[in-house]
Amino acid sequence: xxxxxxxxxxxxxxxxxxxxxxxxxxxxxxxxxxxxxxxxxxxxxxxxxxxxxxxxxxxxxxxxxxxxxxxxxxxxxxxxxxxxxxxxxxxxxxxxxxxxxxxxxxxxxxxxxxxxxxxxxxxxxxxxxxxxxxxxxxxxxxxxxxxxxxxxxxxxxxxxxxxxxxxxxxxxxxxxxxxxxxxxxxxxxxxxxxxxxxxxxxxxxxxxxxxxxxxxxxxxxxxxxxxxxxxxxxxxxxxxxx
Length: 242
What we know:
Elements: E1 6-8, H1 12-17, E2 23-28, H2 32-45, E3 48-52, H3 56-61, E4 68-72, H4 73-82, H5 84-93, E5 95-100, H6 105-112, E6 117-120, H7 128-136, H8 149-158, H9 165-174, H10 180-187, H11 191-205, H12 210-219, H13 223-241
Parallel strand pairs: 2-3, 2-4, 4-5, 5-6
Antiparallel strand pairs: 1-3
Helix pairs in contact: 9-11, 9-12, 10-11
């Protein structure tokens, strides 16, 4: 993809559907593969004029005002944190739709409220044109699995590899309903260290409190080791292919 490449995607689809208002979409992908897939999906619809920016610097310097900014969640976070005035200017003029994966949902929850809509690259990427239409109207589709307790559990299971071995064992013991003193005895650690470790587990897996963590660990006790091992292997595979 060329930076600032302006792609007119008028196609036979427009002729079949009759006159359709063409929207200017500015795409700021975090990954070239995902960016290519999004461009292909938009091309199939034939209803959008797409401009590609590789980062927020290009986005902030781009001429013209797009109707929609389709931006990777990490790029969006950087825009919010590093260029707040640019974010305010863009958000007043354009709809902002964030691209993320389902496993990033809990990590990104604190900033998603500042976007107009979301596209999940591993769930509904092929429906991007529909999601853009909804986002322009102020609506957002949340995949149904995220509305259930088990759906959120599945996301947390993918995050288990970020725990250290001792933190993972601490999570399992929380699932047994043990207090910090008993966990410290089980792990041969001081109670102060266990207290700090519990805080780390809550932060890494986005629990509000130790009770929520314990209920999750108890509910998923059989799935925990398998999910942690599978996640580790996936991360190692990604690292080797990078």
